Amino acid sequence: MEVPILIVITAVAAALAIFLAYYTTRLKFERRFRQWQETERQRLSEEKGKERQEAITQSRAVLGGKFTEQMAPYLPEFNYDPTEARFIGSPIDLIVFPGLAQSDPREIVIMEIKSGKTVQLTPQERKIRQLIEDGMVRWELLQRPSVEAPPD
Fold first, then answer.
1. With CB atoms counted within 10 Å of each terminal CB, which end of the chain scores lower, N or C?
2. Cis omega before residue 91 (within 30°)?
3. Does 24 map to a domain?
4. Residue 111: CB partners within 8 Å, gap ≥ 6?
5. Domain for residue 99, yes or no?
6. How far is residue 150's CA from residue 46's CA, in Å, rounded to a whole number?
7. Which domain covers residue 90, as residue numbers?
């Protein structure tokens, strides 16, 4: 009878050892997983903060550039009468009509305003510059027919 009790005690001890090994291993991996989660949350939070700051910086630069484009005729570097400049915005910034204030326009200047560290034209702006340099500019008049009033 002692043999079956010994087998039962051994089986219980083995089951208990397996349970303890499983439980401690599970706790260890859960702790590692929580640490990993916390590390990832912190990393993502830092990344989000950096991305947010970059977006703010970029937005400020764009707004500053748009402000400069519209205020360019009033800057000391502007070589024309500000009343002769017309803001377009896109795809070019200004059209200047030197002499217009004296009712004697002498030329038409198409102007792109750039600010910031890197001054590069976009592909569209380069294409427009090339069209102007190639003389691919013309004048058109669009006249709408007058609308007659209906008879009473």
1. C
2. yes
3. no
4. 72, 85, 92, 93, 94, 95, 96
5. yes
6. 69
7. 78-133
Backbone torsions φ then ψ of 113, nearest 5 degrees = -105, 130
What whole-number distance in Å separates Cα of residue 104 and Cα of residue 101?
7
CA 116/CA 23 separation, integer angstroms: 61
pTM for the structure as a whole = 0.61
Structure tokens at 39: 């590390």
- Six token digits for residue 34: 């929580």
C-alpha span between 47 and 39 (Å, rounded): 12
Question: What is the number of structural domains in the chain?
Answer: 1
pLDDT single digits (tens) 51-91: 999 999 989 888 888 888 889 999 999 999 999 999 998 89
Q: Which amino acid is at 31?
A: R
Which stretches does DSSP call E strand in 7-147? 85-87, 94-96, 109-111
Q: Which residue has the tokens 């500019």?
A: 137
- Give 125's contacts (C-beta < 8 A, 6+ positions apart): 91, 92, 112
